[in-house]
Design goal:
Helix content: 25-40%
Low-confidence stretches: 596-603
Strand order of the largest sheet: 11-10-16-7-8-15-12-13
CATH class of the largest domain: Alpha Beta
Strand content: 25-35%
Distance between the termini: 67 Å
Number of helices: 14
Mean pLDDT: 80
Largest sheet: 8 strands, antiparallel
Number of strands: 32
Length: 603
């Protein structure tokens, strides 16, 4: 295929603005999928994506399209909309020359719309603005176009109104893709240079690599080399996504496809690597991708200690498909052997856990997540802290720094006061307010990341009745008065329940945690003390009462001394049991430390 007849583009938008539905209509209109095979959200083929109704993995698809007697190849990448999967979006942008920026005709410009638009501009992509869902009764197309002009600097005449559900305006959109998006650069006769932008592991065929050819031509039976590992393989099969894998004899410059080369080890494929011909030692490596910044860490442990090896294999297979999370082995006194895993956000963490449980059939125990901190010790050493147990004694700490993010809230103007109050409670610093229209405004705040990831999104939706949206980016680390708060159960410190929090917030947070733990921990035959402590100072305590057995039920009448002897014997037994008894802590208790304690004290 001549590169001048190839168009590579992706669809970017906020959550639920219709990316996957628009991809369905493009597939249907170009004839890439037969009508009998058509189904809603065709590219969201993962079970978890269909169950949740969201896109988790970016999906590539190649569509043949005939326009005015000329055959074109349109390579589309459908991307996720949630901020946690921004790394998937960035990888997709690096493989394209253009992007369809989709905006809901009723909801208008949202926080992730702005973030994705700026990301596309950073990659020098041609943006085609699209207003979707124009068939809605409450659609406000003119106002939304005005918002796009005001917040993104997009000329109103460039905006294409469509309805992905009803199929309105799709022909005009396809014509704009051909006219506005430039063909890919690169000479098909030059030495092979291909970018690895994704991959997945097949139990029968090994690692399947997704590539975008920057230059050159790749044919079946060619010998190729992965520059990152310097390993050589023979191409057993290559092809395109239509949308299922369809084998072909060759791929040329500008095309997107997959390679199967009998790659048995999942460690041999790296996202962002460069593929060249085996005997080519001169072609330079492509710059690749910026490494993802993991912002949330938690421990994953098998509920059954025997499943440790299975969990490690499952994590390795998942990491080739999703390089944005990392893992390393660790041990816990309370939970045994497991792994410390890093994620881009809370939703990303939840998705990985569910994929492990569904795809590998492993029951997991997950510790409470925490963000990454920095500590400067008295000796001048700078340490990264991924879990509370790594925090040294207070006497060794010269400076404790926390990650700060800049958060953009887009809300209806009547909810500005509620958002300002929400941010002030979380120690936010205001950075500005911008009115997108007479009814919508964008508020910018700097907030500690720990205050953002846990429940800010939920509180935002509650405060704005579902109309508010948010997006954030990491600014860096700033000094703060932070402490490690330990949780003691029955006098023993449970390392998996320790948290890092602000000193001023510690007592309220400690009370909330022990109160929550008291309701989650089952009653035993002895009293269980649940305490929150900073160093050796206990700041909060609750007691789980013992289960009582009526040992005097068989006594009726007679001397009271007989009953006293039985009660004394029971007390001695409880005392002995308390010293040797073991307290079982349920999984829900490990998530109790997420309770920030902002409820009223009587709750």
């Amino acid at each position: 295929m001549d590169r001048h007849r190839i168009r590579n583009f992706c669809i970017i938008a906020h959550i639920d603005h219709g990316k996957s539905t628009l991809a369905d209509r493009l597939l249907e209109y170009t004839g890439a999928v037969a009508s009998r095979e058509m189904q809603d959200q065709l590219l969201d083929d993962m079970e978890l994506e269909r169950a949740r109704g969201i896109t988790i993995k970016a999906r590539a698809v190649s569509m043949p399209y005939r326009h005015q007697g000329t055959e074109y190849e349109l390579n589309l990448i459908d991307t996720p909309g949630h901020v946690d999967f921004q790394y998937e979006v960035s990888r997709s942008l690096a493989c394209c020359e253009g992007a369809l920026l989709v905006v809901d005709a009723y909801q208008g410009v949202e926080a992730q719309t702005v973030a994705n638009a700026y990301a596309a501009l950073e990659h020098d992509l041609t943006i085609i603005p699209v207003v979707n869902k124009i068939d809605l009764k409450h659609a406000r197309v003119e106002e939304v176009v005005e918002e796009m002009e005001h917040s993104l600097g997009i000329a109103p005449e460039e905006v294409i109104p469509v309805s992905a559900k009803a199929g309105i305006g799709i022909d005009r959109l396809l014509a704009a893709i051909l006219d506005r998006i430039p063909p890919p650069e690169g000479d098909a006769a030059a030495p092979l240079q291909a970018m690895v932008f994704d991959s997945h592991y097949d139990a029968y065929r090994g690692a399947i690599t997704y590539v975008r050819l920057r230059q050159g031509t790749l044919s079946r039976r060619d010998k190729i080399r992965y520059c990152g590992t310097n390993r050589t393989y023979e191409v057993l099969e290559l092809g395109r996504f239509r949308p299922k894998q369809e084998a072909c004899e060759s791929l040329s410059s500008g095309q997107v496809g997959y390679i199967i080369g009998n790659i048995k080890s999942i460690a041999d494929v790296h996202i962002g690597d460069t593929v060249v011909l085996a005997n080519d030692q001169e072609t330079p490596r492509l710059p690749g991708y910026q490494p993802p910044k993991r912002m949330v860490y938690c421990g994953l442990y098998p509920a059954d200690g025997q499943d440790f090896a299975e969990l490690r294999d499952a994590l390795e297979k998942l990491s080739i498909n999703d390089p944005s999370f990392e893992f390393a082995p660790e041990t816990s006194d309370a939970l045994g052997f497991g792994f410390r895993c890093g994620f881009l956000g809370l939703l990303h963490m939840e998705i990985v856990q569910q994929r492990l449980e569904q795809e590998a059939d492993i029951d997991l125990v997950q510790t409470a997540p925490n963000v990454t901190y920095e500590i400067t010790t008295r000796s001048g050493e700078v340490r990264e802290i991924h879990r509370p147990q790594e925090v040294p004694d207070a006497g060794e700490i010269a400076e404790f720094r926390q990650p700060i993010v800049r958060v953009n809230f887009i809300v209806p103007t009547e909810y500005i006061g509620a958002i300002m109050k929400l941010c002030q409670e979380r120690r936010g610093v205001t950075r500005g307010t911008e009115y997108l229209s007479t009814t919508r405004a964008m508020l910018t705040y700097d907030l500690p990341l720990a205050e953002v990831i846990y429940d800010l999104h939920d509180k935002l939706k509650s405060a704005t009745r579902g109309y508010g949206t948010m997006d954030y980016e990491l600014l860096g680390y700033e000094p703060a008065d932070l402490v490690r708060m330990d949780v003691l159960v029955n006098g023993k410190r449970v390392d998996a329940l320790s948290v890092i929090c602000d000193r001023a917030d510690a007592q309220r947070r400690g009370r909330a945690i022990v109160r929550k733990l008291k309701s989650e921990i089952d009653r035993h035959l002895f009293e269980v003390a649940v305490q929150a402590a900073i160093g050796s100072r206990v700041i909060a305590r609750e007691t789980v009462p013992a289960m009582r057995k009526n040992v005097t039920a068989k006594c009726y009448g007679g001397d009271i001394t007989r009953k006293r002897k039985l009660w004394a014997k029971q007390r001695e037994g409880k005392k002995r049991m308390k010293s040797i008894g073991k307290v079982d802590i349920p999984q829900k208790a490990f998530m109790a430390v997420l309770d920030t304690g902002r409820q009223s004290p009587d709750r």
